[in-house]
Structures are given as C-alpha cells and as structure tokens.
User: Fold this.
Amino acid sequence: ETGVTQTPRHLVMGMTNKKSLKCEQHLGHNAMYWYKQSAKKPLELMFVYNFKEQTENNSVPSRFSPECPNSSHLFLHLHTLQPEDSALYLCASSRTTGMGGYTFGSGTRLTVV
Amino acid sequence: DAKTTQPPSMDCAEGRAANLPCNHSTISGNEYVYWYRQIHSQGPQYIIHGLKNNETNEMASLIITEDRKSSTLILPHATLRDTAVYYCIVSDPTDSWGKLQFGAGTQVVVTP
Assistant:
C-alpha cells in the first residue's frame, strides 16, 4: 500500500461503454497525475492537476476525460475507447513543488474489447 | 525526447552490489536526477534523488559526477526482490511542477 489507491484494479469494457477510473490519496499532496503504460512502452504522461486545476493535457484524445473535484481525488472518465487504449493506467501524486518524488498507485489494468 | 541514456538490461548476483549507470549529458543547472523502479505490473516506486551531492538512503546510494553529466545508482546488497525496471529521470521541480518523463529504463535481473 503506497498511500495512493486506484480502483478498480482490473477493468474490461466494450468500445461503446462508459466507465471511470478512480484515484485517491490522503498524503496531503496537491498535485496529481495520470500516466498510461502500454505493453513494452515507457510510461506516457497524460494529465497533470495542481490544486485541482489542470495544468497539462499531453495531447490526449477527448475520449479520455479527467476530473479532479479536490486535491485528494482524481478520476479518468472513459468513453468510446479503442482496443489500442488497452493499457495499465497509473495515478501518481506529489507535493506542489514536485520535490521528493512521486507516489504512484498500483494502477488499473484496462482491456478494451 | 529522452534526456537520459541507460543500458537496456543488466544482470546482478544476489548479495552483490548492483551499479546502474545513467548518462544525462544535457542536464541543466536546475534539474535533479531521480531514480524510480517498477516491479512487474506494479506502479513505479521512488528510490532516491539528488542535485549535485551524493545521496544515500535506506534503499540505495546515488553517485553524481562532478560535471553532473552522469550518475550511478548503487544497490548495496541486491536481493531477488530488487528485480525490476530502473528508471533514471532528470527533472526541474520548479518547471511545470516537476513532471516526470519516463524512458525505457534498465531491466535489472537479480539471480541466485
């Protein structure tokens, strides 16, 4: 347990479904991140939130929609995904200055069928 | 754009020290060197970071050359549980909240 909790751990969804990934941290961090890790590829940064405000969208398709209602919770809403979106989705958090490293969750393994 | 260069893989004998090299020849003055590792199918785990001086914690030691163009992560007594992909990352924590860009890393396999 790292202090960053992601649910669900595994998700299988059809291309026409709508689902959401949840991330929660109670470490007192103010910055939260979504990363995508496809098979045999490096982690790709998707979104950055600082104090609930989105500060970066790394050219992510609109079928991925993030939401950050407060500094402790981060969601990734998914709709009309493609099979190539199957990947491990990782959430991380850090203090606002970014010092001291990120804390990552265990990820959600998403399979789009 | 990769700012660091790491060997793709390394083997290490259990109980021996593992020395993981990283080149970051274009590092700027404000950029720190971070090391993370990722055990299979888990999220990355922070190991250590440094700016200029060598650093040590309960997990590892970080040796940064005087010109800061390269560094070495040292796992003093490798165990089988240290088998993982190790990532060396340079990042300026004052720039865009110090977001981390991961490369391919080094796959370290610790053998009995």
Summary: Chain A touches chain B at residues 2, 4, 31, 33, 35, 42-43, 45, 48, 50, 55-56, 88, 90, 92, 94, 96-107, 109 (CB under 8 Å).
